[in-house]
User: Fold this.
Amino acid sequence: MSIVINRVPATIVVAVARNGVIGRDNTLPWKLSSDLQRFKRLTMGHALIMGRKTYESIGRPLPGRTTVVLSRAAKELQSAYELANAETAKQVAPEKPTSGKPAPKLLFCEHFHDALTQLPQGIHPFVVGGSQIYELTLPLVNRIWLTRVLADVHGDAHMPHWPSPASAAPWPPGQWKLTYQETVPVGPKDDWPTCFEEWIAE
Ligand SMILES: NC(=O)c1ccc[n+]([C@@H]2O[C@H](COP(=O)([O-])OP(=O)(O)OC[C@H]3O[C@@H](n4cnc5c(N)ncnc54)[C@H](OP(=O)(O)O)[C@@H]3O)[C@@H](O)[C@H]2O)c1
Assistant:
């Protein structure tokens, strides 16, 4: 008997080097200003779901968006955050016009699906890493925005299930359809040229 998992309306956003690297020393292993600008434009007003290590690497909630941190110690982290930020924790991200209530600025959740149920209607969940959280959510989301970094890069965090150079296996693995592709030449503040792709689950 096969198990069917229902995918949810959520988007993985990731930049991956040719060799599958996504990070080094808990940070990004490149400067890609044009990719960051697109990321900001497309996610503004929505929610960013990330692992505790990626959140620590960024160090703060990103402006204009709800940040959701996944951690097995979510309750403790939420309490500590509220204690330390009694006033600022009450601030809210800008309300989307379609949503009924304001979204929180920062939330800690133990489970991906808890995070989804806590977001107001009209706020789209973007899963933004790192490696452990991509592994967890790859079977669950229905869209991927993939930036292929057109270089082999040294690093210690990798995209789960990325094919080895000798393999002709595709990524993403499984039933996905490529719906958009744009080659982005290297800009003045970019380390590498990239290719941006949108994949939709079939
Ligand atoms: N290239 C890109 O697009 C991109 C994007 C984002 C991040 N990154 C890079 O990715 C690297 C970080 O990735 P990472 O894999 O080390 O860390 P991560 O995925 O950011 O965070 C891992 C943490 O998430 C929590 N977690 C993991 N699985 C969970 C589950 N099933 N339920 C609840 N919580 C769970 C745990 O927190 P607790 O230990 O608190 O329980 C775990 O330690 C960094 O180098 C970063 O720069 C790259």
User: Anything to note?
Assistant: The CA atoms of residues 47 and 125 lie 5 Å apart.
